[in-house]
Amino acid sequence: MRPKVPSLIKRNVALFSLSQSFTGAGMQFSYGFGPLMVVSLTGSSALAGLSVGLVGLSRFLVAYPMGRITDTYGRKPGIFLGLTLALLGALTLGFAMLAGSIALFVAGLLTFGMGMNGANQMRVGVADMFPASMRAEALGYLALGSLFGLLLSPVMVALADVIARRTGADPLGLPWFFLPVLIVGGMIIVGFVRPDPKVIGMNLRDYWPGLPVAAASSRAAKPAQFSAMRLLADPSIRLAILSNCAATGNMSIVMVLTSLVLHHHGHSLFVIAVSHTFHAIGMFAFTIPLGKLADRIGRSRVMFPGVFVSLVGAALVAFTPGIVTVTLGTFLVGIGWAAANVAATAYIADQVETHERGRAIGLNDSFAGGSTVFSAFVTGPLIELYGLPATGLTAIFLAIVPFVLRAVSGPMR
């Protein structure tokens, strides 16, 4: 029988989800409009993947250090630091487009990406507060909060477009000036989360009355020196990380492709934003049932089908020209990523103690950032040299890799 969720835990998860709803639109701008911003500033489609690469690089650089910070000082200080960086980055990106400066764009997107990926420690905070039997579902509730923020994106773009027509300002730059208001709101909401989730994670039985000892984190365990190599020595951990990397790299390529394909066919920024919103719906609208399924039938039985679905979606985006099929493809890539990400994150969180969970999940995020950098690095040149289908084949190849490794190493334990 599943234990009843304490009201304090419900409150904290609701606050984190609400904060996500305030801050989620920013990443939509990064992926959805970043390639168009680069092309606008440089005039080269070969550099279209630069924006996604910068987001991936920022994730690679900050995820593990931010995990170290939150493991040492608590989850909330790391989240506040991340959101502060995101605020500064958003303003820098807005000014970069107004000034037409690619250098300012690079600095702004790196800063914004580091901030938003630092704020991803909210996932660690949610994982801290739940026993393993309910952890994936809890992560699903947090991800659902991102959906409401992403749904604001087309509205903000439409408003920016109206202002741009009246003022002559760059419509790709104006939406970034709206984000700081939402980010500050998100920071205020996180301030109401009490106590720090790390404290709850290290004392689960104090907050979950009647929770069996085996289901709670060990309060008496002496914190061991965290070792990334020790974590990666586990074949099942490697498989979870690689599956998450495959889905993330696949999605990174598709996010660039979607913007370029639709723009190439003459669709407006608003239509592109709507298409990316369907992608966001795939990413976040089904995370709760996917999380429940992962808790019920096992992490791998949700993770691997998720990677396969993302493969199918990538093929639709790359090899079909219509807006309906492209949007369907982005939706499938989103839902495939959601399944792989929720299941992989929950699995890794299950394998470590609270005092090292931030670094463990940060390590997973760093590898995912690396896969994004690779995807972005190859996308632009492949489009320039061989056209859109070549990038689709690359996305499909990335999705196949985890299945090959699973065939070699065997199923996850």
Could you please describe the fold and organization of this structure?
This protein has 413 residues and is mainly alpha-helical. 80% of the residues lie in helices and 0% in strands. It has 19 helices and no strands. Mean pLDDT is 87; it is low at 218-222.
CATH class: Mainly Alpha
Number of strands: 0
Give helix % range: over 70%
Low-confidence stretches: 218-222
Dominant shape: globular
Biggest sheet layout: none
Rg over CA atoms, rounded to whole Å, is 20 Å
The CATH homologous superfamily is named: MFS general substrate transporter like domains
Question: What are its keywords?
Answer:
Growth Hormone, Chain: A; globular; 413 residues; mainly alpha
Brief summary:
The protein is an all-alpha fold.
Strand-helix topology:
Layout: H1 7-23, H2 25-42, H3 50-73, H4 75-99, H5 102-119, H6 121-128, H7 135-150, H8 152-167, H9 175-190, H10 197-201, H11 204-207, H12 228-232, H13 235-264, H14 269-284, H15 287-297, H16 300-319, H17 323-350, H18 354-386, H19 388-409
Helix pairs in contact: 1-7, 1-9, 2-3, 2-5, 2-13, 3-4, 3-5, 3-18, 4-5, 4-6, 4-9, 6-7, 7-14, 7-15, 7-17, 8-14, 13-14, 13-16, 13-17, 13-18, 13-19, 14-17, 15-16, 15-17, 16-17, 16-19, 18-19
